[in-house]
Design a protein that fits this description.
The structure is a single chain. By secondary structure, the chain is α+β, with helices and mostly antiparallel strands. It folds into 2 domains: 2-137, no CATH class; 146-219. Helix content is 56%, strand content 12%. It has 8 helices and 4 strands, in the order αβαααβαββααα. The protein has a 4-stranded mixed sheet, sandwiched between helices. α1 packs across α2, α1 (2-28) runs parallel beside α4 (91-98) and α6 runs antiparallel to α8. The radius of gyration is 26 Å and the shape is elongated.
């Protein structure tokens, strides 16, 4: 029972380390807090004591910084091929706290080759969170929440207001479509008027599409 509790505790620690590293990479690379990161990759490898930095412990065997060093070593020890199955069960929580759309886990025997490969990907961000854990954010274009707020407040209210706006535009669009499809209009309206109305219709459709995208983005914060 104690062994199981210890293992569960260390898995919780691994999940916390992953979330902490995503936040650290966000801050270090000036990714706005309102930006949803589209993809995060986590590469894991078996624990290998020979790869652990010799300077982790001081000569007396004490931690030279904080309990965090020993905790990281303890966490690193539990990582193996089956760790991915555990992490995938908690992917929703990691995505929520790390503000990312998707997170993928990969088991690799040779992390050095992964590092070399990632180093050649221009615009990608990667970081060795532990000696057997690499975090990777592929290059992406930042998309921020409307009004560039660091954290949207009253999300439901904002969505409601946008929906009202969409409904008004939809009514205007439907009226314009009725006008354009009216047989008398088709026969008698000047070509310039028809062209102008089609441009207006296209503009209304674009506005609806843009506002719908804003709602989808705000939904992620609910």
């Amino acid at each position: 029972s104690d062994l199981l509790d210890s293992r569960s505790e260390r898995f919780a620690g691994l999940i916390a380390e992953i979330i902490k590293t995503i936040r650290m990479l966000r801050n270090a690379n000036k990714i706005n807090n309102s930006t949803i990161i589209p993809q995060v990759n986590v590469y894991l490898s078996d624990f290998n004591v020979t790869l652990v930095n010799e300077n982790t412990l001081d000569p007396d065997g004490e931690q030279n910084e904080s309990l965090g060093i020993m905790n990281q070593l303890s966490i690193a020890e539990i990582i193996d091929k089956d760790t991915i199955n555990v992490l995938e069960k908690y992917s929703s929580s990691i995505k929520h706290h790390g503000k990312c759309s998707k997170i993928s886990f990969f088991y690799e025997k040779d992390l050095q080759s992964v590092i070399q490969k990632l180093a050649n990907n221009k615009g990608d961000i990667f970081f060795q969170a532990m000696h057997n854990v690499i975090m990777h954010i592929p290059h992406f274009e930042s998309v921020e929440v409307p009004n560039k707020e660091s954290k949207p407040k009253n999300v439901d209210q904002k969505i409601s207001l946008i929906l009202e706006h969409i409904n008004k535009i939809q009514i205007t669009k439907e009226k314009l479509e009725m006008k354009i499809n009216n047989p008398r209009y088709v026969l008698n309206a000047p070509a310039s008027a028809k062209k102008s109305d089609l441009i207006k219709l296209s503009s209304l459709e674009s506005k609806i599409k843009k506002l719908t995208s804003e709602i989808e983005l705000l939904e992620k914060f609910k």
